[in-house]
Amino acid sequence: MTDAPLDAPATLSDIPREPTQDGPAVRLFLVDGSGFIFRAYHALPPLTRKSDGLPIGAISGFCNMLWKLMVDMKAQAEAPTHLAVVFDHSEQTFRNKLYEQYKAHRPPPPEDLIPQFPLMRRATRAFGVPCLELPGYEADDLIAAYACKVRDAGGEVTIISSDKDLMQLVGDRVSMLDTMKNLKIGREQVIEKFGVPPEKVVDVQALCGDSVDNVPGAPGIGVKTAALLINEYGDLDTLLARAGEIKQPKRRDTLIAFADQIRLSRELVRLDCDTPLPEPVDALVVDDPNPEELSAFLEEMEFKSLARRVGAGGAAPAQVPAAAPARPPQAAIDVNAYVCVRDMPTLDAWIVRAKAAGVVAFDTETDALSSANAALCGISLAVAPGEACYIPVGHENESNGGLEFEAPEAIEQLTVDEVVARLKPLLEDPTVLKVAQNAKYDMAVLSRHGVAVAPIEDTMLISYALEAGLHKSHGMDELSKRWLEHEPIKFSSVTGTGKSQKSFKHVPLEPATCYAAEDADVTLRLYELLRPRLAREGLLTVYETLERGMPAVLAQMENEGIKVDTDTLRKLSNDFSVRMGELEIEAHRLAGRPFNLGSPKQIGEVLFQEMGMASGKITATGAASTDASMLEDLAAQGHELPRVLLDWRQLSKLKGTYTDNLVQAIADRTGRVHTSYALASTTTGRLSSSDPNLQNIPIRTEEGRRIRKAFIAEPGHVLISADYSQIELRILAHVGDIPQLKRAFAEGHDIHAATASEMFGVPIEGMPAETRRRAKAINFGIVYGISAFGLANQLSIPQDEAGAYIKTYFERFPGIRAYMDRTKQMARTQGFVTTIFGRKVHIPAVKSKSAAERAFGDRAAINAPIQGAAADVMRRAMIRMPAALREAGLSTRMLLQVHDELVFEATEAEADATIAVVKKIMERAAEPAVSLSVPLVVEARAATNWDDAH
DNA sequence: TAAGTCACG
DNA sequence: GACGTACGTGACTTAT
């Protein structure tokens, strides 16, 4: 923890606030910035920022004190209307011209305080408070000038300081406040300290001087004597004029001898009301901090607990602390309050409101589920909680199957083109933040209408950055129920389900408006609720660098699609059918009866009951397993049928999952296959691909590769596959700090052979293939959270032998053990683990009552930082890729991502240049956030089909 | 809708 | 010390 253990208040938002600038009376708070930071510095232990050791003790205290002040201020019956923090300017001041020695003997500030000075100003601005400073003047001069100005205009001033030099300013409407001691300093307190009222403090100070500031004063005269003299003679000028009357010879002589020095001292301590004002008083009006700026700053400083407190307050209007349960956070969601926009003036009015708000949530409705073919039905906007509209553009009356004689009456709505044209400037306006739930979908749809939505935030990804692993879904319905305690209208309830389900374009405008506008409304509410948590929970950087840029990139990839060779796939499908038929006949012959080869249950009956083969392991439900490894075992025992079943299964899988369906998946619009990537479906940060899944296209078998060959480039183009070599093991070597592995990677050795060599003490040259295979299995096992059982299973060796390997591995690479132990520890104590890029992966299973589930959680915890970091690296590369290609003048398109591989389509002419750019971006993707201690290596190749590009 | 299986990293 | 057992996905088929 880097936070100051200072007492800080709970929240801002629940404290009633006076309207600012209401009436003429200005109530100004002026904070003495230097005073604040010196007190913070001395009050706190020397804290440093965890990530880089930057000293931040003073700035932490400063922030806590400032925040506490802001909260306390608002709690006052007559809350201040104006607030500023005043700083010394580091240059020489006019006092040095008067007296060279002024403040000359002051020791330099402590070394670890120096780097914190500039941060004070940033902190102040981050809290939304004006900073005041002026070259040639001290903070005290500015404080005096503002205090005089406001006081003379009939306002009130409170100076937040305990500096005695400022006490001369105290008066009827000017007081001081020592926030550390919670003391108000008024006229009485000044008299107590100086023995004179505030207006005579300067005279006393001129006499007694100040050793700290090197104000000379009169030698031998202290505060008591000075006050006595001033009270006796009325003021300094009178005293000096009548010095000869003083009875005590020493005092008399001193005052006469040092009269000039005393007058000089008075000039040095006197604060001048005529100091120019760098900002008008009006500029100091109290304002709430910009939550984003403040969050970003606090996160950068790594002030977690303050960020939490701050975020719980003003930044999140929707979040109500437990203290105020009676008041609902926002107006309840009322779907009947939404507006259906069907004319231009109304649309324009909403656009104006969105611009004024600076933030607009939006959602697109389309006539299909997958974005590849979807046409726009309408767009909804939300400009404030509860204030949302729906703009239909593509709704139609449902035809009655052509039974009517006349065409159905057209629906009165704006056209797609005019609405898009009108919304485009808003959606692309850099000063208006757009918010969407699963922005990728909306961006894909809109990009087909020539709209590049930016800047954009995604509530789904915010939830994912915050809580990956805690929930299966980060979909809007779940988020709404989870955070707003509101169940949105179900899509199926407006479209119907099953056979009678209709396209959204056929939904009547009234229910369509309720449904669509509610989505935008909910999205905006979720945004206001979740977004402040990012900074508060230290995940802003993760979100900004690993999540936020992805929707645009993926939308583009999905829209691009990839070409597949229909003929090849059809031929394959036929070929597979024929061979499956042959295998089926053979299987029935061997079984002695027909049975369904696709039914594990029937296979079990045939193999284990009728043919009497020994059943091995059982499935979760207690049935005898017939999976591939089981069938392999039986085949190895000399049985014929299992081999036939294995062959049939392979072909069945390939045909059913790939050949037939890929052809079906070709979109009419483009003639290409468009997958859909899920950004928030895995726990580790990986993507997933579906409809169709293009991340599991076969490659491991010869038959399978024939399918991969059907993924092709357009004529005159090539596909380029670029994949990270051993990225997970490289990350393991880095996080586990394994010198041998790091060296092997640095020198470009075969990592599995090097592992085997290290473990078994055999040279790499002439190493038996089996030895390397075992090391390879162990390396993979480690990444998965190894167990003797799992390794034994994988290698088909006895469990104790596998256990011995693991033991040897840990002895040779003790860093791995340490990594595993600390990772498990972290998971168990915090409930989550993190990647080197800061991504959080929650592992709730580690807290389970079941030992089995806990063990499962342990393994997931070991794997997540490795798999997750690899995913982080890939995301960074992907986000940077489009600009890098563009800047290189290349027209190359990124098409697919398969975890550690990217697939591009380039013209033949641009292939080589593309490979160079792609390799560079991918290999440097970790930088500058993380400096890996192993090189990242990318292998890239171009060919006309995907298989040959490997 | 669950279970079993298997394609991928 | 017992507990099931490599990590992360999606899609298909059968069976309920």
Write a structural description.
The protein has 950 residues and is α/β, with parallel strands linked by helices. Among the domains are: 174 residues, Rossmann fold (3-Layer(aba) Sandwich); 226 residues, 2-Layer Sandwich (Nucleotidyltransferase, domain 5), CATH 3.30.420; 109 residues, Taq DNA Polymerase, Chain T, domain 4 (Up-down Bundle), CATH 1.20.1060; 146 residues, Alpha-Beta Plaits, CATH 3.30.70.370. Helix content is 47%, strand content 11%. The chain has 36 helices and 22 strands. The strands form six sheets. It has a six-stranded mixed sheet with strand order 3-2-1-4-5-6. The chain has a six-stranded mixed sheet with strand order 7-10-9-8-11-12, sandwiched between helices. α33 packs across α34 and α35 packs across α36. It is elongated. The N terminus is likely disordered. The protein binds a DNA duplex (9 and 16 nucleotides) through α24, α26, β15, α31 and α32.
Q: Which geometry do the CA atoms define?
A: elongated
Strand order within the widest beta sheet: 3-2-1-4-5-6
Q: CATH superfamily assignment of the domain at 335-560?
A: Ribonuclease H-like superfamily/Ribonuclease H
> Class of the domain at 335-560 in CATH?
Alpha Beta
- Count of helical segments? 36
Query: How many strands, which pairing sense, and closed or not: the largest β-sheet?
Result: 6 strands, mixed
- The fraction of residues in strands falls at 5-15%
